[in-house]
Specification:
Blueprint (H helix, E strand, L loop, with lengths): L1 H20 L3 H25 L5 H28 L8 H7 L13 H28 L3 H24 L10 H4 L1
GO molecular function, one term: ferric iron binding
Pfam family, one: Ferritin
InterPro entries: Ferritin-like, Ferritin-like_SF, Ferritin_DPS_dom
Length: 180
């Protein structure tokens, strides 16, 4: 039995390497799942450590966003498995596939910094989501594409709300033309 498990796992690793060099919807969605894990951790940290006059409001908002990220990760992982794909489930896989970054120093950041950081995190997630949507369409995976399209809309709404909190328009500082 142990030998069978090792053979299956080695085949999974080989396929994952292939899928990440020639991206598939499943591989790209694995990055999204990993980013959701990191996002949930960052939101927890922010909830615990945010300070200042808006801390009560932000703690509630960060907790809502954290709960949503955990639920999205779970649903997306289940969808990947239903699509006969593999979801990242270990810390090593999350570390390898996530683009979002954590840092223990962040607990000392300002409320404005946290909000701006989450704006950029949702925007980074959207980069993977838009790629995965295109790949899902190409691979005829409509259920995956539908879930990802909804996730993209949800992230865009969060970006707009967080940017408004900062007194900015939804895409301010995110698009190339805004950086000029």
């Amino acid at each position: 039995m142990t030998k069978d498990i090792e053979a299956i796992y080695q085949a999974e690793l080989k396929q994952a390497d292939i899928d990440h060099h020639t991206p598939t919807a499943g591989a790209m969605t694995g990055h999204i799942v990993a980013n959701l894990v990191v996002l949930a951790n960052k939101l927890q940290q922010a909830k615990w450590y945010v300070n200042g006059p808006s801390s009560f409001e932000l703690r509630a908002q960060f907790d809502t966003l954290r709960q949503e990220a955990v639920q999205q990760r779970d649903e997306l992982g289940q969808l990947l498995i239903a699509e006969n794909q593999v979801a990242p489930t270990t810390t090593a896989e999350v570390t390898e596939y996530a683009l979002l970054e954590e840092d223990g120093r962040n607990k000392y950041r300002t409320a404005d910094w946290w909000v701006d950081e989450f704006v950029h995190d949702f925007d980074k997630e959207n980069m993977f989501i838009t790629r995965a949507i295109k790949l899902a369409a190409k691979e005829d995976r409509p259920a995956l594409g539908q879930f990802l399209t909804t996730l993209l809309g949800t992230n865009n709404q969060h970006i707009a709300e967080l940017q408004a909190w900062l007194g900015k328009t939804p895409r301010a500082g995110l698009d190339d033309e805004d950086d000029d």
